Amino acid sequence: MNETVDVKELNDRIQKESSFVDLIKMEMGKVIVGQKHLVDSLLIGLLSNGHILLEGVPGLAKTLAINTLANTIDAKFSRIQFTPDLLPADLIGTMIYSQKKEEFIVKKGPVFTNFVLADEINRSPAKVQSALLEAMQERQVTIGDQTYQLEEPFLVLATQNPIEQEGTYPLPEAQVDRFMLKVIVDYPKIEEEKLIVRQNVAKQFPKANAILKPQNIIDARNVVKDVYIDEKIEKYILDIVFATRFPENYGLDKFSAMINYGGSPRASINLAMASKAYAFIKRRGYVIPEDVRAICHDVLRHRIGLSYEAEAENITTEDIITEILNTIEVP
After folding, report:
1. Coil vs helix vs strand at 183
2. Hey, what CATH class is 32-203+210-216 in?
């Protein structure tokens, strides 16, 4: 890290460059009541070029949130309802024969857009899940012998109902790791729900206005990369991730038998990127330990494999992450 970074100048620049964040939140606030954590997570994913997995019971405005975000950015949006009989071609497209031209032409699928809502991703078989995950990872789609680049910004927001429900295909660990954040969406508070009911029974449902273009987001992503992250914070991030792999080295011996595997290097990268994006959303030019702590659960909760002992003792990944954050020294 270059020590000659002028943090004050950088901070002023980022304050100026991040002014649109408040505007997006204001527009989304017209439509989405409460769910501040969900809105922040969407912005973090958008600004750090990472995809998001949302988990929550149906009816918590997950679809509405991503649709509203697409509206504020004047971007293309498509929603795909995953079902057990869905085929990869329904997602990425296929070759169809044109009698007029007497040749095969490509019919592109709904994944060719800026924002994809993959609704109930755990209801579709592995073939379809892997087709979406290739698009997420490589930002490209292969149909026949042609490869097509996907437009930027490209954000996949996958929702899954809690796994206990019938007819689901849980996402394999390697695939879940592709998601930058796993966000748990909870019920609104009673005051918020009163507003939600009012909004929905009123004559007209509020609508968000387009205030940005997709290019503004691409530019903002480059600015987010400039957010300063000190060497001490880098070490803090690495300590947190390494504590999920080797808890005994950090005085957390009780978790040794609880964890089958910890966060991959992707966890460290995502934790650093998300911390930068979080600082940007808070309109700061540098990362502080609170930024790391604020997004740590979302980045790590789907990257820790629990053993049978942990399940027998009712220990969750949340408990482990909280304990790690309480144990590791904050710089």
Report:
1. strand
2. alpha beta
Domain locations in the chain as residue ranges: 32-203+210-216, 227-327
**CATH superfamily ID and name for 227-327:** Magnesium chelatase subunit I, C-Terminal domain (1.10.8.80)
pLDDT score at 267: 92
Convert the pLDDT of each residue in 200-233 to its tens digit.
Answer: 887 778 788 888 888 888 888 888 888 889 899 9
Distance CA 151, CA 106 (A): 17
Question: Of the ranges 155-159, 167-171, 309-313, which one carries the lowest mean pLDDT score?
Answer: 167-171
Fold match between domain 32-203+210-216 and domain 227-327: no
Residues 6+ apart with CB under 8 A from 220: 17, 18, 20, 47, 280
CA distance 32 to 314: 34
Distance CA 311, CA 232 (A): 34
Model confidence pLDDT, tens digit, residues 238-263: 999 999 999 888 888 888 888 888 88
Query: Bridge-partner residues for 261, per DSSP?
Result: 305
Cα-Cα-Cα-Cα torsion 116, 122, 127, 128, nearest 10 degrees, comes to -20
Helix (H, G, I), strand (E, B) or coil at 165: coil
| Count of CB atoms situated within 10 Å of the CB of 158 | 29
